[in-house]
Amino acid sequence: QVQLVESGGGLVQAGDSLRLSCAFSIRTFSTYAMGWFRQAPGQEREFVAAITWSGGSTAYADSLKGRFSISRANAKNTVYLQMNSLKPEDTAIYYCAAARGGLPKNYWETNDYNVWGQGTQVTVSS
Length: 126
Prior knowledge:
Elements: E1 4-7, E2 10-13, E3 18-24, E4 32-39, E5 46-51, E6 58-60, E7 68-73, E8 78-83, E9 92-100, E10 115-116, E11 120-125
Parallel strand pairs: 2-11
Antiparallel strand pairs: 1-3, 3-8, 4-5, 4-9, 5-6, 7-8, 9-10, 9-11
């Protein structure tokens, strides 16, 4: 069974950094594009970042460019989200997701991803 397990969330202060990890339990991890989404209380799940299976191409939500960075280590079956200069509005549950094959055409849409993790809470205090 394919599983994604996020880790690395927590409570931090504004301006701090966090690195989230997502471990992927499938031997063919390298054939999946990966994405990060987040969902704040009372809001819809929104796109954060995505990366191709090779790691050669990435995409970001416009509002997060320059602060967040996605990367992957296929040898470790893991994808990362580095978050810098965190703000209180970054508070949310962060989810990783997998899409079989290349980066989805509509990579910002949740429906284009096949597998989801349970999420990890990130709370940023002011």
